[in-house]
Amino acid sequence: MDVIRNEDEQRFEIHLDDGAIGFADYRLGQGKVTFPHTVVPPHHEGQGIGSAIAKASLDWARAEGLQVIPACSFYANYLKRHPEYHDLLDADTRKRLGG
């Protein structure tokens, strides 16, 4: 799955074979990136689309030196399951996620 960063829309996207798009919105500000919303079309749920988007976007945040604020529940749950990204979180968020 190819994840692209759509800077104009401020989101990470996967374009699916049937024309649908899975995406995660992001907002940049003062050395941080917030992920407020993730969408995977219902008929594509359970195919790893959200996880692929989360991984690509978190890898991008790391490369950019950004702290991550997981404002959407999908990102919060993904980060709970992936401690390899906990270094991207501020101390308060890390405590809240149990990392």
UniProtKB/TrEMBL annotation:
Alphabetized Pfam families for the sequence: Acetyltransf_CG
CDD domains named in the record: NAT_SF
InterPro entries: Acyl_CoA_acyltransferase (IPR016181), Gcn5-rel_NAT (IPR045057), GNAT_dom (IPR000182), GNAT_YJDJ (IPR031165)
Signal peptide range: none
Domain of life per record: Bacteria
Annotated N-acetyltransferase domain residues: 1-95, 4-90
Entry-linked PANTHER family: BSR4717 PROTEIN (PTHR31435:SF10), PROTEIN NATD1 (PTHR31435)
Listed name of the protein: N-acetyltransferase
Originating organism: Sphingomonas glaciei
